[in-house]
Amino acid sequence: MSGKTKKKFRFSLKLAGVLIGIIAGAILIALVVAYFFEASREITEKGLRFGELDFSYRIAFILKKYGLSMLNGAGRSLLMALVGTAGGSVIGFVCGIIQTTPANNPVSKALLGVVKLILNIYVEVFRGTPMMVQAVFIFYGAKMLFGLNMEAFTAGLVVITINTGAYMAESVRGGIISVDNGQFEGAQSIGMNHFQTMLYVVLPQALRNIMPQISNNFIINIKDSCVLAVISVSELFFESKSAAGVYYSYFEVYTITMVMYLVMTVFFSRTLRFVEKLMDGPDNYELAANDLLVATSGSLSAPKVQKGKGDIRDGR
Question: What are the residue ranges spanned by the domains of the chain?
C-alpha cells in the first residue's frame, strides 16, 4: 500500500469516526429530549407544582419554560466567542508582525520603537486585568469619556475581541520566532521583502504552530463570555441566572447550564483538533510522476560528438 493510499485510508477512518460520534451524540440527545418532553407532558396533565417534583422532573419543567431562552443565550455566547476569537486573531497577527519587524534606518527604528511600546502597554494591560473589570470599564467608561452609548452585546464583543487580541499577540510573536531562520534567509535570497516573506513564507508556517492556541482561546471565550453578565449581556449564564431566580432552583438550572457549556466546548474542541490534523499534511511525500525533474532524472546522456570535432573530455 503506497503512502498516498495509506493517507486516504487513515483520513477515511478518522472521518468515519467523526460521523459515528456525531450520529451517536444525536441519538443520545434525541433520547434525552424525548424523555424530558414526556416528563413535561405528564407534569402538565397531572397539574403538578414545582415543589412536588423530583430532580429529573424539575429539569424537564425548567427546560419547558426556559429552555428556549437558554438556547438563545447559548447562541449569543457562541457568536461572541466566534467573533471575538476571529477579531482577536487579526489583532494578534498585526501586533505579532509589527513586533518582529526589523528597522532599517534610525528614523524607522525610532518610529517602530514607539509603536512597539504602545503595543506592549496594550498587551500588558489587557493580559494583566480580569475580563470582568475590562467589561465594566469599557461599557461605562465609553459613555463617560467619549459619549458612546454602546449596547451591552456590542460592548461584550469589543471586550472579548480586545482581550483575545492581547493574548494572541504573544502567541503570534512566538509562532513567528519558532519558524527557522533559514526560511527568512531563503525568502530574502530570492528577492522577497519583509512583507512578502511574512505573507507567503513565514505566516503559513506560524499559523499551523499557533492553531492550537487559537482553538484554546475560542474554547476559553465560550466559557468566559459568562462574565459579561455583569453588564447585562443576555448570554447563557445571564439567562440561567434569570431562570434560577424564579423558583430558587439554582442546582437544577446550573446543572443544565453546565451540560450546555460542556457540550459546546467538547464539540468544538474535537472539531478544531480535527482541523489541526488536516493542516498537518502527509507524513511523507511522493514526487509527482509527471514532474519534469523526475521524468528526466537518470535519462540524460552526453551529446554525441561529430567526427572531426574534438571533445574537451578526450583531451582534444
Answer: 48-281
Task: Confirm or reject CATH 1.10.3720.10 for domain 48-281, answering yes or no.
Answer: yes
pTM of structure = 0.75
Give pLDDT, residue 311. Answer: 47
- Which grid cell sits at 208? 499551523
* Rounded-to-integer distance, Cα 84 and Cα 161, Å: 4
Give the model's pLDDT for residue 78.
94
- Is 197 in contact with 72 (CB distance < 8 Å)? no
Separation CA 260–CA 274 (nearest Å): 21
Rounded CA-CA distance 12/61 in Å is: 42
pLDDT in tens, 45-94: 556 565 566 667 778 778 878 888 888 999 999 999 999 999 999 999 99
